Amino acid sequence: MATASHPSFDAASLGNAMGASFDTYRANTSAALRLLVGQQQWREQLLKLEQRRIARDREAVEGLLESLRTARDWTDFAVATQSVWRDYLGASTTLWQEGVAAAMQGASTWSDSARDFTQQWQEACAGAQASASRVPGALPMREWMNAFERAMSSAANGAAQPGKPAGAGRAQGASAGGGQHGH
């Protein structure tokens, strides 16, 4: 019966790897929470603008009602409503400008946040990779990818007939079989 060898346990190296994974966790959680805070701030701004829009509409309706109540004829009503509409359009323009400014500021904030998140993740992942390379049995990512590619290449070459290049084996099999589906 064959015995399997087990890698030695090094608590210090494992602690460093766990610390790196905690740094990654911390970076991801921090990013998620900062996005949540940004979302809540954005909602507050939108709700404040919406509240001001509702107040603008209410004031316009109240102004129209007052114009209708005090007007003696169509001329008085037209003059009074013209004043209401001027105030309404002025308030609408102000709200629109503030909405655009808030959107521009929000886009800038999201862009800055994305840059910060990316930097934090790069630092956390670099720390995790550096820590993982010190753990016995762990390979850095580039070495692991090279080993994976070699394994895939040898598996593909193993599918070819022994002693012949991989492409030659496939070509012979296709011609000997009489076509793609063996006809």
Could you tell me the radius of gyration in angstroms? 35 Å
Low-confidence parts, pLDDT < 50 over ≥5 residues?
Answer: 5-17, 169-178
Q: Could you state the order of secondary-structure elements as H and E? A: HHHH
Report strand %.
Answer: under 5%
The pLDDT mean sits at 76
Shape: rod-shaped
**Helix/strand-derived class?**
mainly alpha
Largest sheet: none
Helix content: over 70%
Count of DSSP E strands? 0
By oligomeric state, this entry counts as single chain
CA-to-CA gap between the ends? Answer: 49 Å
Helical element count?
4
Number of domains: 1
Overview of this protein structure:
The chain has helices at 11-70, 74-134, 141-159, 166-176. The radius of gyration is 35 Å and the shape is rod-shaped. It has one domain (20-160). With 183 residues, the chain is an all-alpha fold.
